[in-house]
Amino acid sequence: MAAFKTLDDLTDITGKRVLVRVDLNVPVKDGKVTDATRIERVAPTILELSEKGAKVILLAHFGRPKDGPSPDLSLGLIVPAVEEVLDHAVLFASDCIGAPAADAVAKMNNGDILLLENTRFHKEEEKNDAAFTKALAANGDVYVNDAFSAAHRAHSSTEGLAQLLPAYAGRTMQAELEALEKGLGNPVRPVVAIVGGAKVSTKIDLLMNLVKKVDALVIGGGMANTFLAARGTNVGKSLCEHDLADTAKQIMIEAATAGCAIVLPEDGVVAREFKAGADNEVVAIEAIPADAMVLDVGPKSVEAINSWIGRATTLVWNGPLGAFEIAPFDAATVAVAKYAAECTKARKLTSVAGGGDTVSALNHAGVADDFTYVSTAGGAFLEWMEGKVLPGVAVLQAGK
Ligand SMILES: Nc1ncnc2c1ncn2[C@@H]1O[C@H](COP(=O)(O)OP(=O)(O)OP(=O)(O)O)[C@@H](O)[C@H]1O
Ligand SMILES: O=C(O)[C@H](O)COP(=O)(O)O
């Protein structure tokens, strides 16, 4: 792994304005953060800089706002959770550039921590727009990237800033890269990957390369419905991206050529409403009622998945198998997580899992600490697995 500068190289920062890119894209329900793991992971970097007397200015995205600012995706909602984890006051500015940001920064004392509003409220962020990056850079003397989980995005706050300011990796960025290299740099076969969740369109392309690197690819969640539909199974009202059928078919062809088994659900738990405790039944995967949706994979599928895990030496997991936030559709994710944890404790398995909701699901199952390594990254983790260059990491390695 190519070298990059870390906080150890960042000396004499008292009074300096340090722009720190963190990932605060945390799960939220009814306005409350339901899993603070990502905040906990960036806390050491933030507190270290604050204790050294820097003015710590946090940059982050939250969700995927489509048309500019929206109150439900304001990072202001996250401030209390960040304060609780840090046990430190956190100031907030209503914009990440312009007068609101500049005024808030001007008022900071050494050691203060300020969170700027969602960078994605400006469409220029995702375009890595030069003028927008410059506007962000105006508030900092130094840039620290501690958001490994957003490092697969070449955005202004994840990549562009590192070209304008002296750039350093934060403690979590450093730890994630070191741990992934150690656990998965040279994975011992057989390798089984589980990919589930809801971000079908942004993750499906990654599977094209992943099938060349693993012995079996277990597909669950919304991703499975897309593959099932592609092979002609009627998925009723399930979360499914029908327009990705050709991509799914191509992945199945690539997998067959590479000798990678594709493991799709044999049965599913279906309901007519997306809510906790909704009436539900287990059906064979070819018998999904037209007016129902699959919200979890069924018990036969769990058995098949666990049998693959039992034969594996390395497990890589991103994306829950079902809508685990609403009982009883957490059953498969919990059962598989517990079995993987058991195999890991018995020293038969190296288990690495990643993703905001995946971490939350492992915490929900009570086994996150039993996995070999739990990354905060989902998409970035899968891209790293594929062997892709992550722009946010590459720019640190190039070193300004
Ligand atoms: N069958 C399903 N139908 C609807 N939603 C599902 C289904 N299976 C899983 N999900 C949802 O998928 C979401 C998690 O997917 P996602 O791809 O965001 O995973 P992740 O671990 O957070 O990865 P990342 O960090 O890349 O976001 C959960 O909110 C879960 O409810
Ligand atoms: O949740 C994630 O995986 C990261 O925060 C990146 O989010 P994105 O997929 O919306 O870029």
From TrEMBL:
Keyword Kinase attributed: yes
Family: Belongs to the phosphoglycerate kinase family.
Subunit field text: Monomer.
Top EC group: transferase
Protein name: Phosphoglycerate kinase
PANTHER family in alphabetical order: PHOSPHOGLYCERATE KINASE, PHOSPHOGLYCERATE KINASE 1, CHLOROPLASTIC-RELATED
A GO molecular-function descriptor: phosphoglycerate kinase activity
Entry's EC annotation: 2.7.2.3
Keywords tagged on the record: ATP-binding, Cytoplasm, Glycolysis, Kinase, Nucleotide-binding, Transferase
Lineage: Bacteria, Pseudomonadati, Pseudomonadota, Alphaproteobacteria, Hyphomicrobiales
Residues reported in the UniProt entry to bind ATP: 203, 325, 355-358
Binding sites annotated in the UniProt record for (2R)-3-phosphoglycerate: 38, 120, 153
Keyword Transit peptide applies: no
Pfam hit, one: PGK
Annotated PROSITE patterns: PGLYCERATE_KINASE (PS00111)
The gene coding this protein: pgk
Reaction catalysis annotation: (2R)-3-phosphoglycerate + ATP = (2R)-3-phospho-glyceroyl phosphate + ADP
Primary localisation category: cytoplasm
Pathway: Carbohydrate degradation; glycolysis; pyruvate from D-glyceraldehyde 3-phosphate: step 2/5
HAMAP family xref list: Phosphoglyc_kinase
Alphabetized Gene3D superfamilies for the sequence: Phosphoglycerate kinase, N-terminal domain
Alphabetical list of SUPFAM superfamilies matching this protein: Phosphoglycerate kinase (SSF53748)
Binding residues annotated for substrate, in chain numbering: 23-25, 38, 61-64, 120, 153
Species per Swiss-Prot/TrEMBL record: Rhizobium hainanense
One BP annotation, GO: gluconeogenesis
Coiled-coil segments on the chain, per record: none
Subcellular location: Cytoplasm
GO-annotated cellular components: cytosol
